[in-house]
Structures are given as C-alpha cells and as structure tokens.
Design brief:
By secondary structure, the protein is of the alpha/beta class. Strands 1-12-11-10-14-13 form a six-stranded mixed β-sheet. Strands 4-3-5-6-7 form a five-stranded parallel β-sheet, sandwiched between helices. Strands 2-8-9 form a three-stranded antiparallel β-sheet, with no helix packed on it. It is elongated. The N terminus is likely disordered.
Length: 259
C-alpha cells in the first residue's frame, strides 16, 4: 500500500459553506440598554472575553446597530425610554435573524415580565444587578449552542461527498465511499482508502467536522465509515478485513448507528 504524506496546510475541504468557529473569528455582540453606564460596563466585560462589542441606547439605534455590526448575539434590556421595548426589538430580531441568541437583562422578575420575554424564546434571562461571572456564563453557553447549531446546519446543507488532498502539485479527490477508516498516530491521522494510505497532520475532531455523517468515532484513535463495517461485536469491528477496537465510551453511539 502506497503511503502519501500530506502537510497540514495542503488539505482542502470543498464544501458549500465554510466557517471558522474559533474565537479568532471575532464573534460580535450587541447590547441594547438605555443606561449608558450599564452599556459601558457590559461592553467592558464582553471585550475582556475577547469579542467585538458595541451598544445602542434606543430601539432605533439597535436597529441601526444590527444592520451595521450584524451581531452574533444580543444582550437586551426590556424597558427602554420611548414606546418600543427590548421585547419589541427581540421579536423583530427573531423575525429577521431567528438563530441569533438573545439574552434579556432586566430589573424585573415578576411573572408578567418573564412571560412577555419568554414569547421571544430567549437563550437566557438575567436579573439585575449582574456581574461579570453571570454575563460570562450566559454568553459562553449561548454562543456555544449557537455555533454548534451553525455547524450542523452547514453540514446538513452540504451535499458534498468528497474531500481533496494535495499530492505534489495536484489535488487528489477522495470520495467518502472510498475512505474506509482513519487511525490517529500521534499528531498525524492515517487515512485508509481503497488503494492508498494518506498521512495527514490533523486532529480526529477536526477531521470529523469535515466528513459526512457515515463517519463515526469508535475509539479514541479510530474513526470508521460505517458503510464499510462488515462485522462487529462488543469489543471490536471489522472494516475491510482490518479488526479495529471499540472504546467503551463510544459503544452506545456506534451501536445506535449500526442498528
């Protein structure tokens, strides 16, 4: 079997959409509160967390902020100066950007206020006074859920069933159906295909994000294409005459896919 070593930077995954979900992409957070002191305090917290941030002190300013900054998350006060409220803005945001997380921040904890806010389906509802730890926890959880959903949406929206890897001056297409299994070997992954083994500098999690749903991690060191699993028991499985171990932490998910 021929072995081809591929540098990390030479791997290209051709998908319908491409997103970078790490902190380096500078996620953006918008704030709507009619008290500038609170806005400045929240902004300081958010900037210390490593995100881009700006604020608005009225409904109209929030609309403009959403158009210009296009935040990935909004912190909304409920009661504002003027006829429009943070809940009104939340409804408008949900209508135009239904997946953007919303966290309400309010001095009111009565049933009526919470019921009105619940109609917007917020990701959290924080009672003032707030502190940095509570903001951090709410924002990190909301963004984590948001980015996980985006990853799944991107994966589902893509009909691609292949990836490209570079060999010398050419990019070689590997069809998912021809990729049998992947083995982790130190800082490298070994990709076992129909006729070749490719050596790639990548993590298992990073590779799984680039593959189709037919690829399942069965052990801390192995990912298999379940379409090529011919036999299995509680301890190991066979892929193209290769016996691979099944880790105890991966059994339940694997068996669900094989049923």
């Amino acid at each position: 079997m021929l072995q081809i070593v591929i540098p990390t930077h030479s791997i290209l995954i051709f998908m319908l959409f491409s997103f970078n979900f790490d902190r380096a992409m500078q996620l953006k957070i918008g704030i709507l509160d009619d008290e500038i002191i609170i806005c400045e305090t929240l902004k300081r917290y958010i900037l210390q967390m490593g995100y881009v941030c700006d604020y608005a002190i009225s409904f109209q300013e929030a609309v403009a902020l959403n158009d210009s900054l296009q935040p990935d998350l909004f912190l909304l006060d409920i009661n504002l100066n003027g006829t429009k409220t943070g809940i009104d803005f939340g409804h408008q945001l949900r209508a135009n950007s239904p997946s953007v997380p919303i966290i309400f921040i309010s001095s009111y904890s009565d049933a009526e206020s919470i019921s009105a806010a619940s109609a917007v389906q917020p990701d959290a509802y924080l009672i003032k006074p707030i502190n940095e730890n509570s903001i951090r926890a709410a924002v990190e959880i909301a963004l984590s859920n948001y980015l996980s959903k985006r990853k799944m949406e991107v994966k589902k929206s893509s009909n691609k069933d292949f990836l490209f890897v570079k060999q010398d001056s050419f990019f070689v297409k590997i069809q998912f159906k021809d990729l049998f299994f992947i083995k982790s070997d130190g800082v490298y992954l070994e990709l076992y295909t129909t006729d070749k083994k490719y050596l790639v500098r990548e993590t298992i999690n990073g590779m799984l994000e680039q593959l189709g749903e037919q690829f399942i991690q069965v052990h801390r060191s192995y990912v298999v294409n379940i379409e090529h699993v011919h036999q299995f028991n509680s301890e190991e499985l066979k892929v193209q005459n290769q016996l691979l171990p099944i880790g105890k932490n991966y059994k339940e998910l694997l068996f669900q896919h094989l049923k």
